[in-house]
Specification:
Distance between the termini: 27 Å
Largest sheet: 12 strands, mixed
Strand content: 15-25%
């Protein structure tokens, strides 16, 4: 496939599930490996990595993205693990950014821990990366080392600055709010972001840890996050959320905003437009799905683009109305977040 080639889809009808939700956002995990060991994500020794032979090649990733763009996908988010650990990540970005659908090229973004951004921000921007979401749960170096089991906060801050300098705007900072861990930094993190022109987003902790130790009582809720923010700022809700996962508020009248992704206490499943591809080629209709559609098998058995498009449709045909975290029968996905891709 050459740069700028029209994306093939085996049919131009958009990706609509049985609840009428149109899917325009594809999350692609480039690797399940990570350079940090965050306590809420995986144990200190890590988790068993996917076998190399099961991982999609760059050609396979780009082909799936091409089919998705032809089906109306407008945003491709590269995730992990830590996606910047993939050696050819700049090439992946360049090739996906060169795709063309009915609405033009997709917006390509990345979710990262920022450790490799000092050297990669400019090349990624040149390749067509539009923006970044950077995970930073604390501004305290000792706390960061305890939380991630790595003393790397200065490198993360350097990566954030590099993304800003490279024009990867808006720079969004993500923090998982955890009771007794970093909930006392909600205001400080927001001040840090506002002062530098970044957008701070807080995330309710979700049951996606490798050890299946999630406890709702330890989760800091959206209501608690907003209450903490209102001790320092005046918040004005931003209307027109659409399919975005974060609800947003103007900070002291704007233009700065702060967001909260309240997947547990205020789920937004009714407007979800996301579908996910794991690093080993499995399509997932929901972050909490317990079933997957095998695209790797199709890719490696010679399936054409029409068959891949049909697999997308079949996957979304089984998408549920919601994730049902509050249902007594809820079962956490077998895969942890690092293996699913955010």
């Amino acid at each position: 496939m050459t740069g700028g080639q029209e994306a093939a889809a085996g049919g131009a009808a958009p990706l609509v599930d049985r609840f009428g939700r149109v899917h325009r956002d594809l999350r692609i995990s480039l690797t399940d490996r990570c350079s940090l060991r965050c306590t809420y994500c995986m144990p200190a020794e890590g988790v068993p990595w996917l076998a190399g032979a099961t991982m999609l090649s760059t050609d396979e990733i780009v082909r799936v993205a091409s089919v998705a763009v032809g089906l109306g996908v407008r945003e491709v988010r590269l995730t992990g693990g830590e996606p910047l650990l993939r050696p050819d990540v700049v090439d992946v970005v360049r090739r996906i950014a060169a795709l063309r659908g009915a609405d033009g090229p997709p917006e390509v973004s990345v979710t990262t821990n920022a450790l490799r951004l000092p050297g990669l921000a400019a090349p990624l921007a040149d390749a067509g990366l539009a923006r970044v979401n950077i995970s930073v749960d604390t501004l305290d170096r000792e706390r960061f080392a305890r939380l991630t089991r790595r003393d790397r906060l200065p490198q993360v801050l350097a990566g954030i600055a590099a993304a800003d300098a490279a024009g990867l705007h808006p720079v969004k900072l993500n923090a998982v709010a955890m009771r007794g861990v970093n909930d006392d930094e909600v205001v400080a993190l927001t001040e840090f972001a506002v002062e530098r022109g970044y957008e701070m987003r807080f995330i309710e902790q979700m049951p996606l840890d490798a050890g299946h130790t999630w406890d709702r009582t330890e989760m800091v809720t959206q209501a608690e996050i907003l209450a903490a923010l209102r001790t320092r700022f005046t918040l004005t809700e931003v209307p027109g959320r659409g399919a975005a996962p974060a609800e947003r508020w103007l900070v002291d009248g704007g233009p700065a905003t702060v967001g909260v992704i309240a997947s547990v206490t205020a789920p937004f499943c009714g407007s979800c437009d996301r579908v996910r591809l794991t690093a080993d080629g499995q399509l997932r209709a929901c972050l909490f799905a317990r079933t997957e559609t095998d695209l790797r098998g199709l890719l490696r058995s010679g399936a054409d683009d029409a068959a891949l498009a049909e697999a997308f449709r079949a996957c979304l045909a089984g998408k549920r109305a919601g994730h049902d975290i509050d249902d007594p029968g809820f079962l956490q996905p077998d895969r942890p977040m690092s293996a699913i891709g955010g």
